[in-house]
Amino acid sequence: MMSGLRHPARVLSLAIVLGAWAPASALAAGQSAHKPAPAQAAPATEQFVDGIAAIVDKEVITLAEVDARAVQVRRQMEQQRIPVPEAPVLRRQVLQQMINATLQNHEAARVGIRVSDAQVDQAVQTIAQRNRITVEQLRHEIANSGMSWDAYRADLRTQIQDDILRQRFVEDRITISDSDIDAFLSMNAGQPILAPSVNAPAPAPQPDAAPAPTGPELVELAQILIEVPDYAANSVVQEKRKQAEDILRKLKTGADFAGVAAAASNGPQALEGGNMGVRPLRDWPDLFVQAIADTPPGGLSGIVQSGRGFHILKVLRRGYAQPRPAPGSAAPAQAAPAPAASRAPAASGPMMVTQTHARHILIKTSKVVDDAKARATLESLRTRIEHGESFAELARRYSEDASAPQGGDLGWLNPGQTVPAFEQAMNALQDGQVSEPVKSPFGWHLIQVEGRQTKNMEEEFRRMQARRELMEGRIGPAYEDWLDQLRSQAYIDNRLEKTAGGGR
After folding, report:
1. In a designed cystine with 444, which of 350, 374, 388, 457 is the match (CB 3.0 to 4.6 A)?
2. Sequence-separated (6 or more) residues with CB below 8 Å from residue 170
3. pLDDT tier at 373, thresholds 50, 70, 90
4. Is the pTM of this model over 0.70?
5. Whole-angstrom Cα distance, residue 459 to residue 1?
6. Contact 314, 221 (CB under 8 A)
7. Cβ-based neighbours of 181, under 8 Å, separated by 6 or more
């Protein structure tokens, strides 16, 4: 339901926090400080006389573009204290990110996703408001970070586009049942708190220690992935395994995990030091759960083989959900709060909310159906509704949303449950009124308001938060699978990879 409307679970999350001005491939905090030498250009070869680093379908990525992006990534890694790999290695890692971005751009163009200047302006306003600064102050901070304002806006545009793609092709294909939510809520009676970071001293046991944790175990993981090509010969598989074994030996003798990940991992988080974030233990793949069963914070797994290749995992932090403290009681000493995405929902008393019962008809844009044609179709349908035809019947026949079989019925909607453009237009309607065609990131809509009511949403809010958390735990693997599908369907000539003697 509402496949084209749900507000993204992660909206510009990398740019919301003041200081995190990095692009979509922005960097998480690293493990150790390292001040590398200035970037050095890779040696010229005959293969690069034409200045081409890669060709993705029919689009060329030039060496100049790769080098410019590598300068930005190097600066970000230094700010996050992640050891920067040697220039040729950094080039290859950056190029792989650019190839993935190009594939997503092509997919967005194929399905007609276009991010307008107004959407970027709204994102800028949101970021400034959440950081409690003005847009002008935001521009000043961006300039101080070394990124131009135009480049920052371009990156926001890409992030918005990628969020829409994730919604359409990844999130909307993940099913979270009511029983999944019931089980999650039964295990999360309070607010989870992560155990101290591996570098923090553990608090001494106290006679009046807090009750034993009852919620799910939370684990923050980083990985190094050595990818194995599909249908690889046994000799290639053994070669990749040996590469993973060599890396594991280096790590066990003191090599910095984040630096090795940046230099050697084929995972999408390589330039983030391999950091994959925090999730409840049960939401990590079963292979990972088994591999780190007895691994303490700071510890390494052995080599884990999956369908993608060979993984080496590092447990950055692990801890448990704690029962919610009684009013007036202190939180456990030395505890660091978990990231927002890992906090279990907790009720906070009655939540009176005005809900809107709405229907809609969605016409998606594509190469065949542009904005003008989609709008004209909806204007024609609106005229037919004004002349007495049923909105619900026309929705069944013409809407391209999953709600079409229900006559476009979206049920009772809460504030914030739909994207801003849709919600703003819906809120302006009286009961029974039909909107003009409304553009959202997902296409064009006609909206009809059936009625409104005020309701205590305490329980619904808890379930909505639980659904969001479950989605966060599942979207990562699903997103990587989707990227793999895009790569397998595309023509990719990665010349840097060939030069390095690797390649898929």
Report:
1. 374
2. 475, 478, 479, 482
3. very high
4. no
5. 20
6. yes
7. 463, 466, 467, 470
